[in-house]
Structure formats: C-alpha cells, structure tokens
Design a protein that fits this description.
TIM Barrel; globular; alpha/beta; 4-stranded parallel beta sheet; 497 residues; 15 helices
Length: 497
C-alpha cells in the first residue's frame, strides 16, 4: 500500500460505466443521460454521454442505477456523535453541553485517548464514503475535549483518509473561549486569547505541513469553531492566515439564540454585521448554519461571496430551519450542504432540506429537488473553489457514486433525482470511486470491517456517555441526564430451584 499517493485500486486504462441514468454536466448545469455512459482514466473523467467512440480497458454495466458525482460535505460528521443525545434531552446546558464552573475550576480533561480519537475519525470517514460523500470537511464536538483538537489526531486523520481514499480538507478545530454554567444556573462566556492564538498557530503549522498529501487527496483548512468565542484581533489574524495559505476557513455562525444574545452583549451587533466590520468575510469562508439570522444578515453573507453551509437534519432536531432556502438562493447566497450529525446521510439531508424549504417558503414548488442536489454537489465545489468537483464532465475529477435503484423498497422510479428525494437513502449507495480509485464496491470497503467497527464504536460511545456526570451542571446521575424514552422494565431471570 502506498501511503502518500492514494492510488490504490486505480484501473489501468479507460474504464466505461453504464447505467439506466447518468448525471452529466453541460452548459453549467447537471443533465440526465438516459442509458448513459461515463468513461474515466486515471483520476480524470474523459467522457460523459452516449456512444463513446474510443477503446476501453474495462466495461461495467450497473443496470438499474443512477451514476452521479460524489457529494461534497462541508460540515462532515467525523465523530461518535454525542449531539444525538440532545434529541429529547433539553436544555443542553443541563445535559452536559456546557461545562459547569466546578468542572472548569478542576481543569477540563480529554475524555478520549489518542487511539479512540484516531478510531472515531477512521470510522466516520468510512461512513461518509458509504453514503456517497467523496469530499469531506470534518466536524467533531469540542464539548468532551480539554480545549482544542490536536495536530496529532489530524495527522492520524490524514493517514486514515489516505488509506480509505476519501478526499478531505483537514485542520484541527480551535477556539479562544467557551461558555460556563455558574452554580446558580447562569451562563457566562470566558475568553482565553492565549489558547486561541496557540490553536491558530498550530492550525497554520498543520496546513503548511500537510497540504496536498496523498496525491492531493488531503487538503487543509482553518476551523475556528464558533463565532461567539472569538475576539476581533484573533479572527482577523485567522482570516489573514486563510488568505495567505489559500485555504477555506469555516466558522459556525448564526446558529443559536445563545449566539445571537452573546454577540449583542459582547459586540453590540449581529454575527454577520460583525464579521463584515472586521473584514472576515470572503469567497472561501464557510458559515454553518444560518438558521438564527435576520434576512439583512444573510444578505450581507450573500454579498460577501461566503458560503452558507446548510445542515437541515441537525437544525430541524433543534426546532429551527433556514428561512428560506429558495429566496436566499435567488438573492445570490451561495449554499452548500453538510451532514454534521448522525446519520452522515446526504440523501436524507437533501430530503429534509427539501421538505423544510417548502414549509418555510409556503410554496409546494420551491425549492425543487434539483436545488438541493445542486447544493450537495455544485454548491460545495464552488465553496472550495473546485470546478473539478461536484460534476461529471470531461476533465473533472473521477469522483463517482453509483446508486442502485433496483431495490424493491424504492417503489417505481420515473425521475431518478425525485427517487433520491422521496424513497432512497445513503443505504442505496453501491459503488464509490474517488480520484479514479474504487474505494467501495457492492457496499464493501476493502479492509474495513463495519461490524467490528460498529461494536467498538458502541463500546467507546457508552464509555463517553458514562462520563457525562463529570461535566454536567450539579452532576446528576446518568439516568437523570438522559432518561429513557419510556420506563424500562428490567428482565428477570427464571429462578432455578
């Protein structure tokens, strides 16, 4: 195995794929080829359409299937997602989502060791591939971390991405502050500029050392976590560093009522207006989630060329939605997609985004299925400045996903994109090709044992959850923090006389 090229399983000579439907790209938009063909050689696509005239080394007919471009996930789950614990357990500050004062005073600790951190990245990367995501910008929770993510864990993440064949933009998340629950239940924000500056310095060092590894599969980014925990000077330095390095910078923004209140209290304005005033915004800025913002703020983001990262599932679970997808796109706002939570299923995110978009617009025709599919492919590629991603056309990267549409659970298929938006899921992904390398075939990733990984992930997750009382306000027992949906009646073994 080559550790630095990412070229395992790359076919020698042109490979021709056929399927009932192929999504090509022409005149700056996706098009559907019925009974279409796609040919790739090495890491690049050489033909999409009908009746390829040249010789090929191999032909593969996928039958009743949809061949499309890989999804671009701008906020890609790379965690054993503790966020799912908040589904029915609120408010978050009472459930271990904000550190209590005594935990802070005793010194926050890393709740996962280096091996566990490495495992969860590799496990999550395999799940992303499994769901047809070929380009990922990882996101993980800092709630159970001592402070920032570490360079070492991202060196390991780069190795996992290279070995699995996933295209990634990596960079350790860093922050200059955090929120604390006081003994009386009030919440305050504390800033530590030294830690923020240290995190930025290490992230810059990571970018310089690891940009372009594994034959270009591993790129880098800056990930300064959440806007409400920053200072003007440090965010300006972060923006300047991203421009100098020419890498994306992702900052979670306009995502909660707590953020809205904190920004008004600290800076006397809204998040978008503050970012505009300090010169942070630009065309390589990625801003999840946009659900807690005035329309004027979203217009500011649109005018700056920044990309809003739409993660419909995680926000819907918190009772909020983007207002509204169709109007914002018409106003020129760049929108890409992210998974952010379990399951890392881009198809499900598109489905939820479609439904919520129509609820918020009050129009059953807006947004369209194409709008969401474009956001999950072209929107992410545009955000990264990658005209070779998110589309299948001559010269583009050979990032290809095959959805099997022959399953009896899917019902009748007329329009394959409509099928994705109604009855399909990430489970229907059969084959994934990234940079010309077949990384999954027939749902199998070579060398990755999903069942063994699932068992390890469950055990690791349960150990992490068991430690929640340490960092939860007033330290209630775990059954009070996360009570069962219904009362549990324990089993009783039969007595042996």
């Amino acid at each position: 195995m080559s550790n630095e090229t990412g070229t395992n399983n790359v076919a020698e000579g042109p490979v021709l794929l056929t399927a009932r439907w192929v999504i090509g790209h022409a005149d700056s938009r996706h098009v559907l080829y019925e009974n279409g063909e796609i040919v790739y050689e090495g890491s690049r696509i050489v033909f999409v359409g009908h009746h390829y005239p040249g010789p090929v080394k191999r032909r593969i007919d996928h039958g009743m299937a949809l061949i499309g471009p890989g999804f671009v996930d701008l906020d890609a789950l790379s965690d054993l997602d503790t966020g799912v614990l908040g589904l029915d357990h609120q408010p978050g500050w009472k459930k271990g989502r904000v550190w209590p004062r005594d935990y802070v005073n005793s010194g926050p600790v890393e709740m996962l060791d280096p091996d566990e951190l490495a495992f969860q990245k590799r496990y999550a990367f395999a799940q992303l591939i499994r769901n047809g995501i070929t380009t990922a910008l990882p996101i993980a929770s800092l709630f159970y971390r001592e402070w920032n993510e570490t360079t070492a864990e991202f060196v390991s993440a780069a190795e996992s991405a290279g070995e699995l064949g996933l295209r990634v933009y990596l960079g350790p998340a860093f922050r200059a502050g955090h929120s604390v629950v006081e003994d009386d239940g009030s919440i305050v924000v504390e800033i530590d500029e030294d830690r923020g500056a240290e995190g930025l310095e290490r992230a810059i060092g990571f970018c310089k050392e690891h940009e372009g590894r594994y034959g270009g599969l591993v790129r880098t980014m800056l990930a300064p976590d959440r806007i409400e925990f920053w200072t003007k000077d440090l965010l300006q330095l972060t923006a300047a560093a991203a421009r100098d390095l020419d890498v994306p910078v992702r900052l979670h923004c306009c995502q909660s009522e707590f953020e809205v209140q904190t920004m008004h209290k600290r800076f006397g304005t809204t998040s978008a207006r503050w970012l505009q005033s300090i010169g942070f915004l630009g065309d390589k800025v990625l801003l999840p989630h946009g659900t807690n913002a005035e329309r004027a703020d979203l217009d500011i983001i649109a005018g700056s060329g920044a990309t809003l990262v739409h993660c419909p599932i995680v926000m819907a679970r918190h009772g909020v939605a983007l207002d509204n997808f169709s109007d914002l796109r018409r106003a020129g706002l760049r929108i890409g997609m992210g998974t952010d939570t379990w399951p890392p299923d881009m198809v499900q995110n598109m489905q939820v985004g479609l439904m919520l978009g129509r609820v918020m617009s009050g129009d059953s025709a807006r947004p369209t299925s194409a709008d969401l599919y474009d956001a999950a492919t072209l929107g992410g590629a545009q955000a990264l400045g990658r005209g070779d991603l998110g589309r299948l056309q001559k010269g583009a990267a050979a990032d290809i996903v095959v959805f099997k549409l022959s399953g009896s659970r899917l019902g009748h298929v007329t329009d394959p994109i409509a099928c994705l938006m109604t009855s399909a899921s990430g489970r229907d992904v059969d084959t994934v090709i990234i940079d010309g390398r077949t990384v999954m075939q027939g749902g199998i990733i070579p060398g990755f044992d999903f069942e063994a990984a699932r068992q390890r992930a469950q055990t690791q997750f349960e150990r992490l959850v068991a430690r929640y009382p340490e960092r939860t306000w007033q330290h209630p027992p775990i059954e009070e923090i996360f009570p069962s949906t219904y009362p549990i009646i324990p089993s009783r073994k039969a007595r042996i006389s």
